[in-house]
What we know:
Blueprint (H helix, E strand, L loop, with lengths): L1 E6 L2 H14 L3 E6 L4 H11 L9 E5 L5 H12 L3 E6 L13 E3 L11 H11 L7 H15 L1 H5 L2 H12 L2 H14 L7 H22 L3 E5 L2 E7 L4 H11 L5 E6 L4 E5 L7 H6 L4 E2 L3 E5 L2 H9 L25 E4 L5 E7 L2 E6 L2 E2 L7 H12 L2 E2 L2 H10 L5
Parallel strand pairs: 1-2, 1-3, 3-4, 4-5, 7-8
Antiparallel strand pairs: 6-7, 8-9, 9-11, 10-11, 12-13, 12-16, 13-14, 14-15
Amino acid sequence: MHYLYSHNDLDGVGCGIVARCAFGERIEVRYNSVQSLNPQVERYLEATRDKPKKGELLFITDLSVDEENEHRLDRHVLEGGKVRLLDHHKTALHLNRHPWATVQVDYDDGSLASATSLFYEYLVQHRMLEPSQALAEFVELVRQYDTWEWEKYDNVQAKRLNDLFFLMSLDDFEERMVERLQNQTAFAFTEFEEKLLEVEESKIERYVRRKKRELVQTFVSERCVGIVYAESYHSELSHELGRSYPHLDYIAILNVGGKKLSLRTIHDDVDVSEIAATFGGGGHAKAAGCPLTETAFRLYAAEPFFLEPLRPDAVRNEYNAKGSAFGALYENRRSDDLFLFPVDDRWHIDVNGETLEQSFDSFEDAERYLKRHYAAWLARDDAFVRYLMRHATRR
């Protein structure tokens, strides 16, 4: 009998599904949260300490062990035990010093690794699993979703696989996927699943639209962050908020009931895993999470609590247009008039009749500064026309 301890998200469960395809009933799979893995590993090592090993394998995927379990696993291997830890989070790279661990963040071609892709390749390489097209397609969908590369390739099927994962019980999802991957030549959703996903996508759209109206903006440690409370659909919500408000460095989603904080970014120069690590969490450069500690609660919940939500830019304008040579008017909740205009190939910002000393190379740079420091939105045409009439003699 072999054992697999994996994470309880899609990537972690993907490892369990691959393991079932490889070993069938000859492997015991247990899914863990970040907090529950180490007690699970400790119990296993205690139970097997005096037992003969007989080729038994312990796999740990998509999660990393603490320092105490590092030493325990070292002793276990020295005593004849067989362990293979496979992870793709850079916060676990230090484990590569052990012969029983492989932590790989990306591949030679620049694509990002996932635990499922690493585990699948390991089993195929060691002739524990026969590769197939269906398995390879499933693994790639999991990899793209977990690393957020599905956005880069606009591969909606990867996102839909995650949606389906949350629509079903874990056991039902695992059973369905294993049966499909063992009996089909290519991976595809069933007709029933397609209809189920259509209903879910409509529900997600309504939820995201409502939560978008609740986003507040503030600065945390010199980073401009958008904060929203949400218990569901974090990936979809953060994707839409990041796309709609690109001036924000990252999006912070608070699940107060679960006492968790999820961090997402669309920017290559922001690493939210580093931010999460300061609160005892971790993850990837563009998607990470951490416990809602006392400090995190103060910074992301208590202090911003009384801030008013951001308003979206006006979308049906004919005259007040972004990048216009006539300028563009912005407003905020302080009733400031914020006019963005070009002069001599530079963009300037006028705040209530006073032009800032700082100028910008492009409209986008000027708008980003304005939105970050004044929490402003593009005004409607009628406000723009009134503004021009009041200031016609100055322009």
